[in-house]
Design a protein that fits this description.
281 residues, alpha/beta, TIM Barrel, 8-stranded parallel β-barrel, two-stranded antiparallel ribbon
Length: 281
């Protein structure tokens, strides 16, 4: 795992504006972010202007931008299955994606990620072909600008994701692996997911959770290291498949963002140091 970087998902810092975001990055001594463009306020011209100025001034790297949409309902797994990603209001949401592509192109961001929405495991479900077509349309729109689409894990099993990627046949689609989401949705084992998704993994959300107790029941997010993602084994598996991307801290706990992200950063550094030490023996 060569020169792996630790970054943070910008929304996890709860910034009121770009200046506060970059102040908090400096406080945490983190130089990489995934930039959340989910809130339309962050896609306004004056806000993007300021982000561009601060990126130039501070030398922060944006690993990816991230999409999300108004009307997504995370109150339950069945609710987000119906309302998430490209499953509904696709024409309107595709327009928002086009706006994000323009912003990413302007800021030199090479990838845009997010939850595409539930893609049925049953290939006979009519929604499977619909979702496949919509994901392909989004990927093609990004490809015109040389931008990679990163599919966030969670809803689908790793096996289902691999099959879908093979069927799509696009070279600009990768995976943003969130091991906690696999547990929250009850979709798979994080370590096995690394082995199955392998070279498709472009970036990782460093997040933790207690696994779902049963079908269509949410698991519970925890602070990094307090949940059931076996991070030492998870990071070792990433090393085994040759992962060289970024670990992006994401925390949706609603506590003190500086404290929680700093705690996650320090835990990641400790695990990575232990892994490197074992490699040197």
């Amino acid at each position: 795992m060569e020169a792996i970087q630790i970054g943070v998902f910008s929304a996890s810092l709860h910034p009121k504006d770009p200046d506060q975001l970059f102040e908090r990055l400096q406080q945490l001594q983190l130089n990489m972010i995934q930039l959340a463009l989910i809130d339309p306020a962050w896609r306004k011209l004056d806000v993007v202007d300021r982000i561009e100025e601060l990126l130039d001034e501070r030398g922060i790297e944006v690993q990816a931008a991230f999409f999300g949409f108004a009307g997504e309902d995370y109150s339950s797994i069945p609710a987000i299955r119906e309302t998430g990603g490209f499953a509904m209001n696709f024409e309107k949401r595709f327009k928002a994606i086009e706006d994000m592509i323009e912003i990413a192109d302007r800021l030199g961001i090479e990838a845009i990620g997010g939850h595409a929405g539930f893609i049925p495991e049953d290939r006979g479900d009519p929604m499977y072909d619909t979702m496949l077509e919509r994901v392909g349309q989004v990927a093609d729109a990004m490809d015109e600008y040389g931008i990679q689409l990163l599919l966030e894990t969670g809803q689908e099993s790793p096996d289902g994701l691999v099959e879908m990627l093979e069927e799509l046949g696009r070279f600009n689609i990768g995976i943003n692996l969130d091991p906690a989401n696999l547990l929250l949705y009850g979709a798979g084992d994080p370590v096995e997911a690394v082995r199955k998704l392998g070279q498709h993994i472009v970036s990782v959300h460093a997040k933790d959770a207690i696994a779902s107790p049963g079908p269509d029941v949410w698991g519970r997010e925890t602070l990094l290291g307090d949940g059931e993602v076996p991070y030492p084994r998870f990071l070792a598996a990433l090393q085994e498949v040759g992962f060289g991307g970024a670990l992006i801290i994401e925390c949706e706990m609603g506590g003190d963002p500086i404290h929680d992200v700093a705690r996650g950063r320090d835990r990641l550094k400790g695990w990575l140091a232990e892994l490197e030490s074992r490699r040197g023996r």
